[in-house]
């Protein structure tokens, strides 16, 4: 409870949700710290994540082994960062990880294109996509390398008024 | 992960202790204290009313619709406190310790009305027994202290009236300050596209329909921004746009003027009806004023909507214009109503005393009548000019003077009730029946009802918020004359919460453009503040300038209502206090004080402006330093 932003009741509730996803695998008793991981397919079918276009990226960023399986600790971590009590800086760190599709620690043009396509479900034309990506790099890139580093991203997101309210999942 | 290991290590180390018992004890107490704090947080979150309902609505409809319900809940809290004040300090003492019903003329239903006093129609209209009870101003006795507690009733009434207004001001301004802090200061124009890309998806959405709408709205917003970016600065037909906008404003002004005139006309007509006796007219004529006001409030906003389609503004600007116009409409209606009512109260010199409305002339005549009537009681039993023992007369038979405060209170209560009824009926018919119609008649109708004309309704956020604000304005205006108003409002908000939650989940569909909730909150607070200020003006005016009725209420017999304060100072406080207060209320002292406050406001304003400018300068410097680093 001290590492996350949840109260005891909420952590127990989270455990209940984790358990119902795979009752035959997840043990009820966590005192012996068992090593149980749930695969990505189960997690992204949760009702809170189902409609989210970035669900795979979210699960991947919180997964320790990099393949998308979440242990219970990762699970609680994920919802803790996405809860409303997490501070802005922490959320910015994870948001950066989520939007960085090729995991090269930079948000480059292709990452932006993929984000945009997921957001609009590919309704925009090619030239519109290019225009938007150019505008984003023009606005946020401070060090002029043509892609967004973490400092650029954080600088941009800290000024956004609705970042905290939209980057928030209630469970 | 790292954090977890660290915490394990840390707590383990403490458990071994350093051998000092006191240190270990302190550590244990700290842990217990933290546990207690966590439990308290758990308890507090469990206590917030309606939290689960609002969360559900938020996940289906997005944060903007939920913000309306959060606003409703906040208003409910304020009204609970107002209710507590009026109920606990005014209504309960009078009910428990004041003279009971029937002991005084002002507390009894007059003989003439007794036959109909218990009818449901009379009670619904708030006359009869309802009028002669703790619910209205007229029931209260002007005795200085009541009961064995020596509770000072008139003082309490006055202070509660002033206190409710003061409390409301304080809490609205406090919330505004808090919102202003949260808003922070971000530049509006930079990072437009970046924010659209990274913060437009609302992670709270869990409903497929909402998600579809959200995708569509994100796409549209991107397209809009792209078009704005691609378009060159030239504006074709700038004259046509300007002309259309001027035309639209003109039409809106006409509508406002028309509605104001209509209300004035209707109130005058109702006075004429009252003159000729209400029994000759049907239900419509009796309730004409309330019905007209409610209908205007229902239809004019849609009219404004149609007019605004002429203007072709950016949707956010169009919304602001819409809100401003509806605001002006409601304000105009309320004030025309008040003025017409005040007219009725003040201008009665020309109308001879044929009906029960406040009038100095009429009061004199009634007083004269009362002395004649009393004399007639003594006639035949005791000769004049001698002290006579009081004759037992049933209080219901004593002729009564006019009581304008109760009348005003009754008008406000009736208006609130009819407004509530109209809202509920609109929800039931406009949303529920419409949804039922569309759902079931879709099979046997020529065109597709769900996509075509009626379709399901959206939740009208701005209309509902404005309705809430104006309702609160009426409560603030009327609660001095009718202590029952906060109680009625608490009941209304409570039922309204449940009804609207149900209606939203059952009959409404998510909006086309899912609206962002963050910025507009302070706009609503500012309107609330404005309404609060305007609604307290009439009450303050009557306290200071109009003499209270001689025959009813806690201030009867005084020339001005605020004299109760000076009376209390003279009689209840030691004499030096009165002297100090006398010096303090000297205009020679108050005027410089007001001057000092105005100057300090100006000074604080100037310093805050200079801080903002310094802030901007620093930001620009940062930007230029960063740009320099690039090169």
TrEMBL record, chain A:
GO terms for biological process: calcium ion homeostasis; integrin-mediated signaling pathway. It comes from the Eukaryota. InterPro entries: CIBP, EF-hand-dom_pair, EF_Hand_1_Ca_BS, EF_hand_dom. SUPFAM superfamilies: EF-hand. Residues 87-122, 128-163 form the EF-hand domain. Keywords: Calcium, Cell membrane, Cell projection, Cytoplasm, Integrin, Magnesium, Membrane, Metal-binding, Repeat. This is Calcium and integrin-binding family member 2. It comes from Dryobates pubescens.
UniProtKB/TrEMBL annotation, chain B:
GO terms for cellular component: plasma membrane. This is Transmembrane channel-like protein. It comes from the Eukaryota. The keyword Transmembrane applies. GO terms for biological process: detection of mechanical stimulus involved in sensory perception of sound; vestibular reflex. It is found in: Membrane. GO terms for molecular function: mechanosensitive monoatomic ion channel activity; voltage-gated calcium channel activity. Belongs to the TMC family. The keyword Cell inner membrane does not apply. Signal peptide: none annotated. Residues 403-518 form the TMC domain. InterPro entries: TMC, TMC_dom. Pfam families: TMC. Keywords: Membrane, Transmembrane, Transmembrane helix.
């Amino acid at each position: 409870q001290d590492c996350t932003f949840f109260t005891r009741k909420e952590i127990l509730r989270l455990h209940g949700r984790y358990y119902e996803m795979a009752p035959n695998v997840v043990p009820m008793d966590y005192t012996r710290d068992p090593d149980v991981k749930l695969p990505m397919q189960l997690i992204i079918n949760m009702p809170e994540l189902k409609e989210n276009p970035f669900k795979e990226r979210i699960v991947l960023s919180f997964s320790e082994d990099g393949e998308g399986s979440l242990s219970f600790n990762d699970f609680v971590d994920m919802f803790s960062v996405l809860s409303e009590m997490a501070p802005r800086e922490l959320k910015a760190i994870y948001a950066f990880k989520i939007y960085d599709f090729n995991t090269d620690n930079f948000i480059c043009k292709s990452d932006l294109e993929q984000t945009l396509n997921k957001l609009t479900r590919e309704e925009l034309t090619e030239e519109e996509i290019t225009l938007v990506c150019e505008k984003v790099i023009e606005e946020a890139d401070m060090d002029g390398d043509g892609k967004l580093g973490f400092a650029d991203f954080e600088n941009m997101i800290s000024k956004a008024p609705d970042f905290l309210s939209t980057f928030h999942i209630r469970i | 992960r790292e954090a977890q290991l660290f915490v394990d290590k840390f707590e383990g180390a403490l458990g071994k202790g350093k051998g000092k018992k006191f240190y270990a004890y302190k550590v244990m107490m700290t842990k217990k204290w933290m546990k207690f704090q966590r439990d308290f947080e758990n308890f507090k979150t469990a206590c917030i009313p309606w939290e689960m309902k609002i969360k559900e609505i938020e996940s289906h409809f997005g944060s903007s619709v939920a913000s309306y319900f959060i606003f409703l809940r906040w208003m409910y809290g304020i009204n609970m406190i107002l209710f507590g004040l009026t109920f606990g300090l005014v209504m309960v003492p009078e009910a428990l310790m004041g003279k009971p019903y029937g002991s005084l003329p002002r507390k009894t239903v007059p003989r003439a009305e007794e036959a109909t006093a218990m009818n449901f129609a009379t009670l619904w209209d708030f006359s009869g027994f309802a009028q002669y009870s703790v619910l209205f101003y007229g029931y209260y006795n002007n005795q200085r202290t009541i009961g064995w507690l020596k509770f000072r009733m008139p003082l309490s009434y006055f202070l509660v009236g002033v206190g409710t207004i003061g409390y409301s001001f304080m809490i609205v301004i406090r919330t505004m300050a808090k919102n202003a802090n949260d808003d922070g200061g971000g530049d509006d124009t930079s990072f437009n596209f970046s924010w659209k890309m990274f913060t437009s998806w609302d992670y709270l959405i869990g409903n497929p329909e909402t998600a579809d709408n959200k995708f569509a709205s994100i796409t549209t917003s991107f397209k809009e921004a792209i078009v704005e970016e691609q378009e060159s600065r030239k504006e074709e037909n700038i004259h046509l746009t300007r002309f259309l906008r001027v035309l639209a404003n003109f039409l809106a002004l006409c509508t406002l003027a028309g509605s104001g005139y209509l209300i004035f006309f209707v109130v005058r007509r109702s006075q004429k009806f009252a003159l000729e006796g209400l029994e000759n007219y049907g239900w419509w004529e009796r309730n004409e004023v309330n019905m007209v006001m409610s209908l205007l409030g229902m239809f004019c906003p849609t009219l404004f909507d149609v007019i605004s389609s002429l203007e072709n503004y950016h949707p956010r600007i169009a919304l602001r214009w819409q809100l401003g116009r509806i605001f002006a409409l409601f304000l105009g209606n309320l004030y025309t109503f008040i003025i017409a009512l005040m007219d009725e109260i003040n201008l009665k010199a020309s109308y001879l005393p044929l009906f029960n409305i406040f009038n100095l002339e009429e009061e004199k005549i009634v007083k004269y009548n009362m002395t004649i009537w009393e004399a007639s009681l003594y006639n035949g039993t005791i000769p004049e000019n001698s002290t006579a023992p009081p004759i037992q007369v049933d209080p219901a038979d004593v002729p009564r003077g006019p009581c304008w405060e109760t009348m005003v209170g009754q008008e406000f209560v009736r208006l609130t009730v009819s407004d509530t009824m109209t809202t509920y009926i609109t929800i039931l018919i406009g949303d529920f029946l419409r949804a039922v119609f569309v759902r079931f008649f879709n099979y046997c109708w020529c065109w597709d009802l769900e996509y075509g004309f009626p379709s399901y309704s959206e939740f009208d956020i701005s209309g509902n918020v404005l309705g809430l604000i104006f309702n609160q304005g009426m409560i603030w205006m009327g609660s001095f004359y009718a202590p029952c108003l906060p109680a009625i409002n608490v009941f209304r908000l409570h039922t309204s919460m449940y009804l609207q939650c149900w209606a939203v989940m059952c009959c409404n569909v998510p909006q086309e453009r899912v609206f962002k909730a963050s910025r507009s909150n302070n706009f609503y607070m500012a309107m609330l503040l404005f309404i609060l200020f305007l609604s307290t003006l009439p009450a303050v005016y009557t306290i200071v300038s109009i003499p209270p009725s001689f025959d009813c209420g806690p201030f009867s017999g005084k020339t001005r209502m605020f004299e109760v304060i000076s009376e209390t100072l003279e009689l209840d406080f030691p004499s030096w206090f009165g002297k100090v207060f006398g010096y303090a209320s000297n205009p020679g002292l108050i005027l410089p004080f007001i001057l000092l406050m105005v100057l300090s406001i100006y000074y604080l304003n100037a310093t805050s402006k200079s801080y903002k400018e310094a802030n901007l300068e620093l930001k620009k410097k940062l930007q230029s330093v960063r740009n320099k680093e690039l090169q």
